[in-house]
Amino acid sequence: MRFEGSFAQLKERLELLAQVGTWKELNPNQYEFRTHSGGVMSWYPGTGELGFQGQPESSLELEQLVRGMLSQDGEAMPDARPIMENLAHAPEFMNMSFLDDSYADSELVLGFVGALGTDLKVVCQIVEDRLKAFRYTAHCIRISTDVITKIGDVPQTENRVERIDMYMREGNRLREVSGDNSILALGAAVAISQLRYQESKAEPGRNAYLINSLKTPFEVQRLRKIYAGGFFLIGVHADHERRSRYLLDDLRLTKEQAADLISRDENEKEPHGQHTRDTYHLSDFFVSYDGNLDALKNQIWRILDLLFGKPYVTPTFDEYAMFMAFSASLRSADLSRQVGAVLTKHDCIIATGANDVPKAGGGLYWPTRNDAHEIVDEEDGRDYKRGEDSNAMQKKEIIENIIRSLPEHCRDEVAPLIKNSGIKDITEYGRVVHAEMEALLSSSRMGVSAVDSTLYCTTYPCHNCAKHIIAAGVDRVVYVEPYPKSKAQKFHSDSISLERSRKGVFFDAFIGVGPRSFFDLFSVNLGSGYAVIRKTEDGQAVDWSEANAKLRTQMQPCSYIDREYMAGHTLSTYL
């Protein structure tokens, strides 16, 4: 259904709707009307398209009413009164399965993130094929063609470089114009709602929506707000050489074009640009694609088995150690960020570390219980007790001194250049001991050698830590979050290797279940999902099959307000 005209004209044609709900302008490209009964209509001025979603019965009645009104010049249909009465009242239907673990038809929303040149289409296809075993129907939503094209303006072109560039620029423009860096995630949510309506007349069911791909942390945060426990992000890692080869050989780009697009994709300097690098580490799962389809398929299958509650999937040591590194990071009170590290040998943890201020006698500051039974930090200890970050203060002082030393007539012109120079990346004036260093120091304090050990850290080591990691004899470093300021690879290319087969300390991107979902998916009864049962009452191992499995964390199509009402209604039946 379409309407060509202005918003004012549409409201005038649908004037009677004011009796059953309210209009809202979501952004210049989308207006929403929501009935009191839960039906939702969206209108997109750019295309004139009208979409209906929300509570199934209400959305159908709303569509019927609007269709009649638009065909009758704003007048309601002769039999419209019962429909309008329904739309004007909140629904009374209650699904009591929302209060227990019997609800089994939760939808699933999977987002994908990977640097430019990563073949995410292959990953989505494997996910789609595997979901069929769980009786789920997958729907792929491409941010470029299914969102940017619909809410933006992207000229048609056969040139692949121009097409990629235009999608990136239009995405940036939409974020800037709307003032919302999550606007493309909002578009993805609308696309999901429309797909649901087309497939099942707005009735939620065993549907999975695959969003390819997310490029900013704001998009991930927005989708987690909307879908909560029903949204998971899968980060796909492919090395720089493979991604470049894909752009050069498959898309026929030049080296200069490929290098420019990869750099822009990872971290555009403009505030509304793409920040794939910052988005990747927010993933719930990390998979690696090096061209081996069997290896990729096995990783994807294991992820879906976990999501659907397979009771016998347990963590690898890499997953366990990285979760412990994440746990160690939570004790940090650093003003900038929380980083954790774990040092291991022979699959045993020998030391942990976090980024925080050192204290005399060894180790870092911990809060302690005083005589009044209060848990407090020592005065003048951690940075927040001093009220400042010493590294930031020193950088500021250096920049101010340089600017003061310049002739007055050029200070205003040169100052921005100095402030945005490499000085901002200096880290050596901080009071904190970095997490990797603390793990190494903790090990040495206990008299345990770090030779041939593996270091797990939540963030790629800086160049200062890297030289000590090399000197300590560490064999392998596993990390999650990139650290752009690090010059480790540049300064120590003789001793750091990005491939296991080469000489040097192996710096290895983490692959597996990330710390974010570790607890919920591996705990059999303490996570946010239903409890996993591993044996029958007579002690036999439980049989598990994909066809009968249900998602561990169910995304219920109702709010906590609805569930409160259901709880009160249920209680009243008991009294």
TrEMBL record:
InterPro entries: APOBEC/CMP_deaminase_Zn-bd, CMP_dCMP_dom, Cytidine_deaminase-like, dCMP_deaminase-rel, Deoxycytidylate_deaminase_dom, P-loop_NTPase. Keywords: Hydrolase, Metal-binding, Zinc. Pfam families: dCMP_cyt_deam_1 (PF00383). GO terms for cellular component: cytoplasm. SUPFAM superfamilies: Cytidine deaminase-like. Residues 316-504 form the CMP/dCMP-type deaminase domain. The keyword Zinc applies. This is Cytidine deaminase. It comes from Pseudomonas soli.
